[in-house]
Design a protein that fits this description.
Structural class: mainly alpha
Distance between the termini: 32 Å
Number of domains: 2
Shape: globular
Strand order of the largest sheet: 1-2
Helix content: 55-70%
Length: about 250
């Protein structure tokens, strides 16, 4: 009986705890998706720069990223008509669509195994699909309208939220600097990919800020997650009106 009670104990968790667990899982997946997505973009961009005439084709990867894009668009279109919070809606849709927010691996092949009438997808073609995925992901994060509330740092009601507030203030200052840079940039449009490398970094940096802001709005945040935000902010250096963005990956602890 003791073993049976241990196995079923989780069934009696308070609703608040279940909702917090759903939110933690959702935010962790969102952060992981963003880390992998922008790293895939950076690596492929560097490969194209160093090997502009590469004969490798990416038909399968392009199909996988197209699926990522379609699922993101489907979520965005469906969410307004679904009951519940964003994490609850995500949990239901993820159950029905297991590949939602799953970023595929970029894999190429130098052996032509295509049908005669099938178009070859080269690295620049795949890059455009990833760019579209990033723009759609930005909209996905932007539409997460969770309202701010008093959070419990490290899951305890008795803990002061000062550390969270400090990180929030630092993030807000970083956000203001990035928005000032954006005002000076004429080529940064909401629905199109920037043509200049500096503008691309600015776009990715603005998405970084949106993702970090969502983490800091969690009902329950751990020390590791707060540290992730601090380390992520260090990778956005705005000095003398220029942004230096470190694209290296930092895994988010769920």
């Amino acid at each position: 009986m003791d073993e049976f009670q241990d196995e079923t104990q989780h069934l009696h968790q308070p609703v608040a705890n279940i909702n917090q667990d759903l939110e933690t899982a959702y935010v962790a997946q969102m952060c992981l998706t963003w880390e992998v997505l922008h790293c895939q973009y950076t690596q492929l961009s560097q490969k194209i720069s160093s090997q502009p005439d590469s004969p490798i084709f990416y038909n399968y990867s392009a199909q996988q990223f197209q699926q990522l894009l379609v699922l993101l668009q489907r979520f965005i279109e469906t969410e307004p008509f679904e009951p519940g919070t964003r994490p609850e809606i995500y949990a239901r849709m993820r159950n029905a669509l297991p590949m939602l927010l799953q970023v595929p691996k970029v894999q190429g092949s130098d052996q032509k195994k295509l049908e005669d009438d099938e178009l070859t997808v080269l690295a620049p073609d795949l890059l455009k699909v990833i760019e579209s995925s990033i723009l759609t992901f930005r909209l996905f994060v932007k539409m997460d309208k969770k309202s701010s509330s008093v959070r419990n740092l490290f899951g305890s009601q008795n803990q002061m939220t000062t550390p969270v507030h400090q990180v929030q203030c630092s993030l807000e200052k970083k956000k203001v600097k990035l928005k000032e840079l954006r005002k000076k940039t004429k080529n940064l449009k909401k629905k199109s990919w920037p043509s200049m490398a500096a503008d691309v970094d600015l776009l990715l940096g603005l998405i970084d800020v949106k993702v970090m802001n969502r983490v800091l709005r969690m009902e329950r945040i751990s020390k590791e997650q707060l540290f992730w935000c601090e380390e992520k902010m260090k990778k956005l250096d705005v000095t003398d009106g220029k942004l230096q963005r470190d694209p290296s990956l930092i895994l988010f602890s769920g």
